[in-house]
Amino acid sequence: MASSDPVGDMIAMIKNANQRKHARVAIPHSRFKEGVARVLKEEGYVADYKTVGDEKRPERKTLWVYLKFDPEGQRVITNILRMSKPGRRVFRGVDRLGRVLDGLGIVVLSTHRGLLSDRQARKEKVGGEMVCKVW
Predict the structure, then answer these.
(1) How far apart are CA 109 and CA 117, in angstroms?
(2) Can you give the residue ranges of every domain in the chain?
(3) SS3 sequence, 20-89?
(4) Residue 37 burial by CB count (10 A; 0-12/13-18/19+): exposed, middle or buried?
(5) What is the pLDDT of residue 59?
(6) What is the CA radius of gyration of the chain?
(7) Span 41-73, pLDDT tens digits
């Protein structure tokens, strides 16, 4: 059965793997999810991500997200929350973005220029749909 909120499922998978201190998590691939993983890597919340194709079914890909831990073994991601949901989309202009924990966290935004962190969106002066908050 197909999910009604695949990005919400991705965020839940990352959150659960992070709480269990797993090194990586496998997520069904989409370009949007890969964009979210790219923003998390650029901002330093995940170590890396990789797309792997299935040998038996080449049209199905898996997105592997490698979680990041500090030298003492503590999690880098304290929490990750879905902001915009299928039943209630949340849009913000660049002037109404606000800061997550006074700049210690980020918001991933879906803009007309692609997926950006709130820091990048402020530099480019664009707003958009708030996908998730990470700190």
Answers:
(1) 6
(2) 6-134
(3) CCCCEEEEECCHHHHHHHHHHHHCCCEEEEEEEECCCCCCCEEEEEEECECCCCCECCCCEEECCECCEC
(4) buried
(5) 80
(6) 15
(7) 999 999 999 999 987 887 899 999 999 999 998
Helix (H) or strand (E) holding 108: strand 106-111
Residue type, 55: E
First to last CA, the chain: 31
CATH number for the region 6-134 comes to 3.30.1490.10
Please state the pTM of the whole predicted model: 0.92
AA identity, residue 2: A
Q: How many CB atoms lie within 10 A of CB 63?
A: 21
- Separation of alpha carbons 37 and 51, rounded Å: 11
Sole residue written with tokens 């299928």: 86
- The segments of the chain whose pLDDT lies below 50 read none
